[in-house]
Amino acid sequence: xxxxxxxxxxxxxxxxxxxxxxxxxxxxxxxxxxxxxxxxxxxxxxxxxxxxxxxxxxxxxxxxxxxxxxxxxxxxxxxxxxxxxxxxxxxxxxxxxxxxxxxxxxxxxxxxxxxxxxxxxxxxxxxxxxxxxxxxxxxxxxxxxxxxxxxxxxxxxxxxxxxxxxxxxxxxxxxxxxxxxxxxxxxxxxxxxxxxxxxxxxxxxxxxxxxxxxxxxxxxxxxxx
Length: 225
Fold this sequence. Notes:
Elements: H1 17-27, H2 49-70, H3 73-88, H4 97-118, H5 126-129, H6 134-168, H7 182-208
Helix pairs in contact: 2-4, 2-7, 3-4, 4-7, 6-7
């Protein structure tokens, strides 16, 4: 005799297949490009339509810029190694090694900042915030991101004229090597714009997430997904 197969229990007491699919769909936490490392939106979040599309596009753009900026270290590290060997082994330092490393390190840190803000990669005050409740931490985030946005606006006010002047006059460093430095100065307002946009996106994530959602459904504010 063939063993009789057990009947699978209905989901939520509903036996209809279409109704079960609806119940399963409601339990799935929607994600924003989860396979690409972007933080999932919390269950119950009310970000919809064009606003969600824009937020996803901004984060995706900053992720691509971040991945591109990483490769600057592939230039900086060999240059520094060459400079150290030339200086201390052959006693013949270059005039361009240290200056090139400095000119590339600035864009590396600036362009990586916006995506680090998304994945919470900056150094947080864990000793203080981990003792606070989730609701208090949410209030702090609601205050934190507008401060970041205001900081970016103030720096843009001063950096845009400086970058424009450097580009207009094709500014150089006036050193022995004398490389152009206007590209590095142009990176400053560009990175500030990206940081400003990402700060607004993170602020919207906090505003539209459900404050009553369980901690397991809310985005991890300290980790990387």
